[in-house]
Specification:
The protein is mostly helical. It has three helices and no strands. Helix 1 packs antiparallel against helix 2. The termini are far apart.
């Protein structure tokens, strides 16, 4: 995995974790912000042909 892909995967993971924590804490503003960040990162991944389906299903359902 190259540096771009690694960074993208880490940013997605961090955003999903932050979204989960925001929801747990009832911070709706942060949850909306993190959801937008995730959408942006998914779009970036799609434009560059990065497979992000691996490993995030479990996290996405937890969030």
């Amino acid at each position: 995995m190259n540096e771009f892909m690694t960074t993208l995967h880490l940013r997605i993971y961090d955003a999903l974790e932050s979204l989960r924590r925001a929801r747990e804490n009832g911070d709706e503003d942060l949850a909306v912000t993190q959801a937008g960040e995730i959408e942006d990162l998914v779009e970036i991944a799609a434009r560059h042909g990065v497979d992000i389906d691996c490993g995030y299903q479990e996290l996405a359902h937890a969030a």
